[in-house]
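Aim 2, interim progress: modelling of the iron/sulfur cluster-bound target.
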Amino acid sequence: MEISLDFDKCCGAGQCVLAAPEVFDQRDDDGVVVLLDADPPAEEYENVRRAAQVCPAAAIDVRP
Ligand code: SF4
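Predicted structure of the complex, ligand included:
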């Protein structure tokens, strides 16, 4: 799985962190997304895909 983040699009909504807390976090100062694990284990794939779907800014791109 390959995860790409568009930091300019990210509005700090935090939906990705709720969906996949093992993979995403947010910067303390401005809430912009942080990628904790660029190559997550297979059991996280569903959570990561859900995070990409719920991101209101479409800032997360996931490739199989
Ligand atoms: S859900 Fe999208 S906009 Fe919100 S913090 Fe995550 S990447 Fe950024």
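The two ends are 5 Å apart (CA to CA). Helices lie at 15-19, 45-54.
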